[in-house]
Amino acid sequence: MTWRQRAQGLGKVVVGVSAVTGALVAIYLQKKSPEDRIAATSWTTNFKPSIIWDSNWDKREPDSLVKVSKDNPDPKQQKDYENLVMKNTPKATRHLILIRHGNYNLDGETDQMRYLTKLGREQAELTGLRLQALNKQYLKLVSSTMTRAVETADIILKSLPKDLPVERSDLLREGAPIPPEPPLGSWRPEKQQFFEDGARIEAAFRHYFHRASPDQTTDSYEIIVCHANVIRYFVCRALQFPPEGWLRMSLNHGSITWVTIRPSGRVVLRALGEAGFMPPAKISSM
Amino acid sequence: MTWRQRAQGLGKVVVGVSAVTGALVAIYLQKKSPEDRIAATSWTTNFKPSIIWDSNWDKREPDSLVKVSKDNPDPKQQKDYENLVMKNTPKATRHLILIRHGNYNLDGETDQMRYLTKLGREQAELTGLRLQALNKQYLKLVSSTMTRAVETADIILKSLPKDLPVERSDLLREGAPIPPEPPLGSWRPEKQQFFEDGARIEAAFRHYFHRASPDQTTDSYEIIVCHANVIRYFVCRALQFPPEGWLRMSLNHGSITWVTIRPSGRVVLRALGEAGFMPPAKISSM
Question: If you count Cβ atoms within 10 Å of the first and of the last residue's Cβ in chain B, which end, N or C, has fewer?
Answer without folding.
Answer: C
